[in-house]
Amino acid sequence: MSEKCLLDQWRDMAYNKELSKDQLEQFWGTYFNIEKGIYEQLLDAPDVEVKGTVEELAKKYGQEVLTMAGFLDGINDSLKVPNPIETMDASTEVSLAFDKEKLYKNMVDAKADWLYELPQWDNLFDEETKKRLYREQKQSGTIRKEKKIGRNDPCPCGSGKKYKKCCGKNA
């Protein structure tokens, strides 16, 4: 295949190093508004599976095919069955059937407050559930170190000996 797949074309456009910082900010600002609009529609009917070709979905949401490819790239990790985004073209059949909790957590992970604070989430999750999902996602990236056992501390195996004379002997 000599022509680049849609995802590569999208990435070339979205991460164009020849654009100025202002141009990139304007590009992403416009994209994030488009993305927000699509998510509002999806979250209004979360149990309805939206399917079609990339081109059909682009028309449905009033977008260009490349913009739809970017959206599909962003939502892919939240789908029940991922789409073949690495190889898709305009006629590839795709589905937007998403896992609600996974989508919410991925939005939190992406720090996309304009998405995880959409009012449509209030119809899907109560406040407590949203807080729990938010906390779970934030904690999933936190690395916790266990307290180090000192040489003269009691051995954690419960033998009553010092660590250095018991399980720490071979460490």
Automatic annotation (TrEMBL):
Region of interest: Disordered: 136-162
SUPFAM superfamilies assigned: Sec-C motif
Pfam families from the UniProt entry: SEC-C (PF02810)
Taxonomic superkingdom: Bacteria
Classification via PANTHER family: ADENYLATE CYCLASE-ASSOCIATED CAP C-TERMINAL DOMAIN-CONTAINING PROTEIN, UPF0225 PROTEIN SCO1677
Protein name: SEC-C motif-containing protein
UniProt organism field: Faecalicatena orotica
